[in-house]
Specification:
The protein is of the alpha+beta class and 354 residues long. It is built from 9 helices and 9 strands. The longest helix has 42 residues.
Length: 354
């Protein structure tokens, strides 16, 4: 690696580290303030809220690192442009593509860091943080994680097929036991919480067991008091954010082999890999901008442009992901299309630099 490559790479990496530190500080502060509403509930303390906030920061860093790479690139390379260092490099005959090589080195470093966060650091810490918080808030409940969701609330055991969203679930089976004896079994097609501590069960079928025999009932809807809530349900099912890519692929294979819908988890898998790769493209995207109208702009203008681009990327990426899920698009195409478009835009912008 040449001195020029090291200089450009260090400039972009330092800029990215500064931006990411600021973003994480703001995110951590906001999350901690939000957690204060639950302090005092169950055994959830101020220190528990602080630990939970810190444990969720790696996932936030993983999500924000591509945008931080863009902002850091604009900040670092913009500083070089303001001091005419990039102009001097171009006057010495160094092409924009040659400069892009040094920026790409920084992008690779950022990509490796993002990959480590997304694969080895964020998933277990996010899993522990969610479990710690939910169980501290609801000490009376116990949760078993696995391919299906199992939750125990006293003498009631609940099996949850899947989470649909907004606190709603797919098929739910409810077992009521009296010691070693099963006294009731109910099955609902879907379930959701109302504003109180009640569970609304739809298309509900129930069978009661007693010494006199069994009795079955069918109802279009049924209201069941419960101490469960959306946080506890979230622990009882497989969350893509808490799985490494290898485990996510194994879970996708499990769903496919059992004839279950795996699109959500396939999209999560490919989106994770695409998000890691996007950090490299974002770093390169900063280079053509500092050769254009931002060459003599101040740091505030560069940050504003970076924020606008980052917000546009975030909104567009999420809109495409949600549309892909809604309309049944191929998960691989849905995940990689934004990165592909961004790569083409970056290549064209670099080619037009003079």
């Amino acid at each position: 690696m040449s001195t020029l490559d090291r200089y450009l790479a260090l400039t972009v990496v330092v800029g990215t580290a500064i931006v990411l530190s600021v973003l994480l500080s703001l995110t951590g502060f906001i999350n901690f303030i939000y957690q204060l509403d639950d302090v005092g509930s169950g055994s959830y303390t101020m220190s528990g809220a602080a630990i939970y906030t810190l444990m969720t920061l790696p996932l936030a860093a993983y999500d924000m690192l591509p945008i931080a790479a863009l902002l850091g690139g604009l900040l670092g390379l913009g500083g070089l442009a303001s001091h005419s260092e990039l102009v001097a490099m171009r006057a010495a005959g160094i092409s924009p593509w040659r400069l892009a090589r040094g920026v790409a080195v920084a992008g690779l470093v950022i990509t490796l860091v993002n990959g480590a966060l997304g694969e080895f650091i964020a998933p277990p810490m996010e899993r522990y943080a969610k479990s710690m918080r939910a169980l501290a808030l609801h000490k009376q409940l116990s949760v078993a994680e696995g391919q299906g969701g199992w939750v125990r609330d006293g003498n009631i055991i609940v099996n949850i097929d899947r989470i649909i969203g907004d606190g709603r679930t797919g098929e739910v089976s409810i077992f009521t036991v009296d010691g070693p004896r099963l006294v009731r079994m109910g099955v609902a097609r879907t379930a959701g919480f109302d504003e109180g501590q009640r569970w609304n069960l739809e298309d509900y079928r129930e069978t009661r067991f007693s010494d006199e025999g069994t009795k079955s009932d069918v109802a279009r809807s049924h209201v069941e008091p419960t101490r469960l809530n959306a946080d506890i349900l979230g622990l009882s099912v497989v969350d893509p954010d808490t799985l490494q890519s290898v485990n996510l692929w194994e879970y996708v294979s499990y769903l496919r082999s059992n004839g279950l819908n795996s699109e959500r988890y396939e999209l999560a898998l490919w989106s994770r890999i695409a998000n890691i790769a996007s950090a490299l493209v974002m770093a390169l995207l900063a280079l053509p901008f500092v050769f254009g109208s931002l060459r003599s702009a101040g740091a505030g203008q560069r940050i504003l442009v970076g924020v606008l681009l980052g917000v546009g990327w975030f909104v567009g990426n999420n809109a495409l992901s949600n549309s892909g899920t809604l309309y049944g698009f191929n998960p691989f195409v849905t995940a990689w299309l934004p990165v592909t478009i961004l790569s083409l835009v970056t290549a064209v912008a670099l080619h037009r630099v003079r």
